[in-house]
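ZP: hey, is the GFB complex queued? I don't see it on the tracker
AM: it wasn't, my bad. submitting now with these inputs:
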Amino acid sequence: MPRLFIAGHRGLVGRALVRAWERRIAAGEPWEILTRTRAELDLRDEAATRRFLHDEKPTHVIVAAAKVGGIKANNDFPVEFLLDNLRVQNSLIEGAWRAGVERLLFLGSSCIYPKHAPQPIREDALLTGPLEPTNEPYALAKIAGLKLCQAYRRQYGAHFVTAMPTNLYGPYDNFDPLTSHVLPALIHKFHVAKAENRPAVTLWGTGAPRREFLHADDLAGACALLLDRYDDEAPINVGAGEDIAIRDLAELVREAVGYEGALEWDSSQPDGTPRKLLDSSRLLALGWKPRVHLREGIAATYRWYQEHRAAA
Ligand code: GFB
């Protein structure tokens, strides 16, 4: 019986993975899902993680646990974004190899690519130029995780693969206005401004950068395909295939929330990389395609936010 350990099962991505594998089990596939909360297992603790993997013997592992955040959080806490992510992924990747895990899927991020990589960004753009400074620590940690998986594959024949998702959104995201990514931050800011009748909402940067957004459920679908059928050392991009200017995204979210006040742009906050649209043609060639359109995805995420976060 294949036994999947979803590391980070309570986060945006982890919850989507649990939903996807619960659907596979409901469809009759013989999967068993293994999870641990942070209180039960601190993945930064290498010995505890190694013991857990040795004792529980999962056959598959998806590394969806990470210290994540938006541009401001990355900029404000470089130590944690580098150190915590290195500790978590080193524990999991080495522990998985020692425990004889059959297949491991490591999730990185599109921010591993150079700030000015040719668009759309191909996987072979990796390490061809300087990184975006606001998230360089996180990007370096993710590059190290990718390289460690490749090293285990080359040195020991481990079936460890790596996927690089674009910006993600969906239920169970972080909506905190200071530490979250832009899409959930917009939902929260517009919702509060509407509820409190505020005349304006302040957003960061110039609104000119472009971002690609993929719903977490579409990433989970890609993970199922990759864990089953992808076994190559090259990282593989997971993107929606189109991007949008932050200014236009703000209008989409404002419309979904129904906020009619003014938008103000605080240019003292960083824009970050100007664009990071992924070339996902290698994954599309495997038969995957994104299903959740951005407008519907934003509406569904806002409904979830209203039911689960707005009260808080
Ligand atoms: O999503 P975000 O925080 O991260 O910012 P990145 C995307 C763009 O939205 C930036 C602008 O140009 C921000 O300046 N923005 C405007 C805002 N208003 C807001 C706001 O209220 N909150 C936020 N958060 N942004 C992240 C990396 O980069 O991408 C992570 O820092 C990770 O490590 C993630 O890689 C996928 O897309 O710029």
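AM: back. The CA atoms of residues 210 and 245 lie 4 Å apart.
ZP: great, adding it to the tracker
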